[in-house]
Structure prediction request, 469 residues.
Amino acid sequence: MSEYSFFGAVEKSFDRAAKFTTWDPGILEQIKQCNSVYRMHFPVKIGDRIEVIKAYRVQHSHHKTPCKGGIRFATSVNLDEVMALAALMTYKCAIVNVPFGGAKGGISIDPKKYTAYDLEKITRRYTSELIKKNFIGPGTDVPAPDYGTGEREMAWILDTYLSMRPGEVDALGCVTGKPITQGGVRGRREATGLGVFYGLREVCNMPDVMEKLGMTTGVEGKRIVVQGLGNVGYHSAKFFQEAGAKVIALAEYEGAIYSEKGFDIDAVFQHRKKTGSILNFPGAKNFDKSADALEAECDILIPAALENVINGDNAERINAKIIGEAANGPLTPEADEVLIKKGVLVVPDMYLNAGGVTVSYFEWLKNLSHVRYGRMEKRFTENLNTNILGQMEYLTGKKVGTKAREAIMHGPEEADLVYSGLEETMISATREIMEMWKSNPAIPDMRTAAYVVAINKVGTAYAELGIFP
Ligand code: GLU
Prediction:
């Protein structure tokens, strides 16, 4: 297993990349550190006993504000993990040009062991602790979902904030990943998985990259393995399936399933919901050990659950040509070294899973503008397109078919705009990182190239803002 802490692993990747930059060592040191660390304990009444809950919020960087990052509920949450995840958020936001500093929060609990009522109490109490210390707000620090949390928790956070800050006009922007009915944005739920898909599709569309890996260009027909069927894994798998790839193995903590034919993701999801397990899916082979699926022979392996799943112990047995890090930190530095030697292309987490925070940014902008995307221009665009089409038909004397007519006339709705904004973001980021990698052949891997891009952007912010004398 890894001898490094998670934050240590992030620092190690940072140091490796820093060598390819020209920043002053002091600036590099400042970028690397976590600026503010808030560790808290608070009591919550669970049934007739009082439980002391341990929780954190770390703001890694203030080179841009607000700070941004999810809140995780898991027993494994600890300070080292939250610091590492907050740092990754800084680099992630920089790479996809989301103008936020990185942050992360976590509560050290197993959410499955609590009722919804108790979870609500814990979430509200955590939020009020953040408010007391000014660690939340649309201009200071904006949480979002992460492992173990979702729209429901974000709505509780919003409601607690609203009740303690009545009349604050931009209050809706204090948290993202909210239900659509509470100021959320369409497309946020699937955003991370969709971003993973857009990013990997762009890599697969690069002929030189694919040739080096001995693969054909394009996503169609690629054999995919996905570990973790949570929000991110489920949506990544689904978008690959829709694009004509074959998802041949799916892993969850109870085990994994394999089928050379490829799975229908929704059918597997329903099966798991009905039977309580991914195993025994009709026509599929069971793997008792979930980790065995990671070693299955495939084109693209997508770890989409927790950190450190590919490490010094199993990296040698990985049989994928590309690894798409949908989770945060699924590979340890030892695994990275082994995989570089094996010629596997590792598409790094801090850019590949940035779809979530990118769409969070869109949600935050929506909250500050107080208007749904598309509301102002949808009808206008449709009327304009109707007129253009009418003129074309009049001038040519020919009629456009029904399907083409619908496509041409369609004015943008919120989901259309969010999807296209995300697609543009992921494609540009992929190209920027690849360009960096190509421009400096000494850069050993894509992760290092991504860090160099991120360090340069954060470094520029510090250099231009100046350091207080
Ligand atoms: N928790 C997600 C991440 O790790 C999303 C963060 C956000 O939307 O602020 O990127």
In short: The chain has two domains: 1-33+190-377+412-469, 36-182. The longest helix spans residues 414-439. Residues 36-182 form a domain with the Rossmann fold fold (CATH 3.40.50.10860).
